[in-house]
Amino acid sequence: MGDSRVERMHVGDDTFWSIGEVARKTGLTVKLIRHWSDIGVVHPAQRTSAGYRVYGTEAVARLQLARTLRDLGLGLAAIRDVLERERTLAEVAATHVDALEAQIRTLRSQQAVLRSVTRRDTTTEGLTTMTDLARMSAAERRTIIHDFVTETLGELDVPTYRQGLLAVAPDLPADPTDEQVDAWLELGELVRDPALRAGMRRMARYAAEHNPGEHDEGVLQEAQHAADDWLRRVETATEEGTAPDSPAVDPVVAAIVAAWIPTQASTTAKVLVDDAQARSLLLEQLDVASDTHVERYWQLLCVVNGRPRRPSMAAAGQWLKTALRSNPSPGARAAKLGEVYDAGDGAWEPAGVLNACEKVLDAVSALIFAVAPGQFGRPTPCADWDVRTLLNHLVWENLLWAGLANGNPRSDFSTDHLGDDHVEAFRTASRDALSAFGRPGMLKQRYGPAPGIRLVEQLVIEMLVHGWDLARAIGRPHDFVPDLAESALPIVREIYGDLPRTTAGSFAQPQSVPEDASALDRLAAYLGRSIS
What is the rounded distance in angstroms from the CA atom of residue 279 to the CA atom of residue 256? Predict the structure, then answer.
């Protein structure tokens, strides 16, 4: 017979319940109540003459509290301490909070490791490394960075650089965010990457060779101000649509060099001016400094330590390096183009360049008319551009060259020029361009180093190559106006032949073409398009 046989009994004013009735009142099992009774969590009020346990009001209350504490995750020892008044509920709760926080940190680390595994092609060795990194103490994290810096810099005489690296150690807070944990895992792997060590040592070696020893705070701030200046100027030029390999960028380069020269007093014995030597030295420094692994290292440290993260300088650095390579000395690009521009203007004969422009604009207009709004999201041969972005650029090119021809240069490069009617937007812009080009004397008027005829040629070239992009994107025949493409090829080779082909430049590296490729395919391939 079990303890639950007697349901309820009264002794004087007191009521006692059997173990079965208590189980129903508390939601606990008879087996668990019996166990807790055996180990002293709860005490029966008395036993019946038959030996059955019965429980009073206080025992029921103890069981209800014990159940609540158990649901909160407390162990039996802590529950017993509270019930026996050996420790207060607040004391036990505080202890349990600490334990839970430690458990949460462990779980968060495990979660970050597993999340990283889902994002990466992680090997079993990589999983072990990430798990070890997640378990590290603050002292162990600092040791990893200290050893990395010491081994990477070795004997190089760069005390300021060394101190700066050692001063910024990863300091995960007691309650890190998921982003901070992820950043530490990536950082712990990154310091093992030979590419990071090579990039950091290359910077340090350059500093040791050109400007060794201690650097005071003023010098460092001056260098930072110069970096902020060129970033701001590059961002402005990019927003205005200024290509880094065009002569129009030369004033931007000149302003950047002028702000940078005062920071070079201890780098070279010669007094620098804006010339080929100064631009070459700035380009050399940018090549050394623009290491994506080093930049990522500092970004991750900022995330781990909860500090503001500077935006990436990679794209702006590529832009400026392309601008320096395209304009190696003041006026060099303009002078080179001036020679090309004055070499002759008979490429478009017998019909003339204005007729060529009208013909290619009509052909591109027909392509644009064939574009349905449902095709706007399609990719194009232009990297990172979909069809709608390409259409917007086609309109912009007409607005740009029309504005230059009329003496009103435009800077609204980033504006949406399509509106709700892409066909009408292009037709209006192309009419404006033809009108500006048809103004009497425009073809011989000088626009910087170029006569007006070269502005018209530039629009023809842009429409040819970007028209080819559009035709490919929407699945239309892309060998339109083959005679114009044949005429444009030698001009394109003259204008763009010596440009650096970089990720920031106007065109990628020339691509191979089959022997029987059309003229427009050859033109597109020369300007970096893959025709396969």
Answer: 10
The pLDDT tens digits of the residues spanning 478-532 come to 777 888 888 888 888 887 877 788 877 778 888 898 888 999 999 999 988 888 7
At residue 126, the 3 state secondary structure works out as helix
The answer to whether 253 and 279 are in contact (CB under 8 A) is yes
Q: Round to whole Å and give the CA distance between 364 and 481.
A: 10
Give the Cα-Cα-Cα angle 530, 458, 400 (nearest 5 degrees).
105
Angle subtended at Cα 369 by Cα 364 and Cα 370, rounded to the nearest 5 degrees: 100
Q: What angle do CA 119, 189, 102 make, to 5 degrees?
A: 80
| pLDDT tens-digit series, residues 35-59 | 888 888 888 888 877 788 888 888 8
How does 470-508 read in b/e, with b if 16+ C-beta sit within 10 Å? bbbbbeeebebbeebbebbbebbebbbeebbebebbbbe
What is the spatial distance between Cα 85 and Cα 96, in angstroms, rounded to a whole number?
17
- The torsion region of residue 477 among left (phi > 0), alpha (psi -120 to 50) and beta comes to beta
What's the alpha-carbon Rg for the chain, to the nearest Å? 37
Residue 170 identity = P
Closest CA to 463 of 380, 395, 387: 395
Condensed to tens digits (0 to 9), the pLDDT of residues 57-68 reads 888 888 888 888
The C-alpha torsion from 307 through 310 and 312 to 318, rounded to 10°, is: -150
Q: How far from chain centre, in Å, is Cα 140?
A: 29
Portion of the chain with pLDDT greater than 70, in percent: 84
- What pLDDT was estimated at residue 47? 83
What sections of 438-481 are H helices per DSSP? 452-474
CB 326 within 8 A of CB 499: yes
Token look-up 């003496």 returns 407
DSSP 149-187: HHHHHTT-S-HHHHHHHHHS-----SS--HHHHHHHHHH
Q: Checking DSSP bridges between strand 8-11 and strand 446-447, what pairing results, if any? A: unpaired
Residue 2 to residues 7, 19, 259, 266, 284: CA-CA distances in angstroms? Answer: 11, 9, 93, 94, 90
